[in-house]
């Protein structure tokens, strides 16, 4: 399948100053926030609890409690000076909480330079190990993927369409196969031909910044590394770095897995990332899991 490309937009921005608002200041969004704070940007956004709210304020981030029971009061005023908006809140059983509660308000805002929505590669569904790109059919195989697809469609339907970022499996400091091994949770489950794509959280932040500098509203981007690989290989390499014996290989067909854990093996595909390279001029800092895990290990994570 040929790599997907889109024309590079002529409208480019300098990112010397700005104000980012994040619906959902989780792992990926907060990594981006820290990068922009270091550049002198203002960052605000939402979280789900008061303890997280206080921790974010200590980092210089204005944080507001948000969930379906707690809309952001007077959102229009809070977004009056915002230049860029990122949504990373996952869908719940009822749909996308941000769109459902605040979508109409966001649709009325005309001054935003950039809107981003963090989705997943799960929207492609099971492709039996074949390569997919941003032009491939969207056929999610489970309810989680279907909810993500519906959320994508809602964000793309805004008057100022969101940029859609389809993230592969995220890892990084304090959240990697190294931690799984150290905590005694590692399993080497083998399903013939099964591969997963991954992405380091630092590369996610870099892709988002590259898109903010070169906005192309409504465009979808696969955000993954260059090496779709079997999950057991990643655990084996993490054990090698840590100098421990890998756990025994478990056959997927007979492995004692929870329904949730088993569902992660339903989809099998190799995800192309040509568009982030060709349209955004992006170069991965961590093009495969070996470089990513080795860097984390050497840094003490």
Automatic annotation (TrEMBL):
Fetch the CDD domains from UniProt.
SDR_a4
**GO molecular function annotation:** 4-phosphoerythronate dehydrogenase activity
Q: What is its EC number?
A: 1.1.1.290
Task: Give yes or no: UniProt keyword NAD.
Answer: yes
Query: What protein name does the entry list?
Result: SDR family oxidoreductase
- Extract the InterPro entries matched here: NAD(P)-bd_dom_sf
- Any idea which UniProt keywords this protein has? NAD, Oxidoreductase
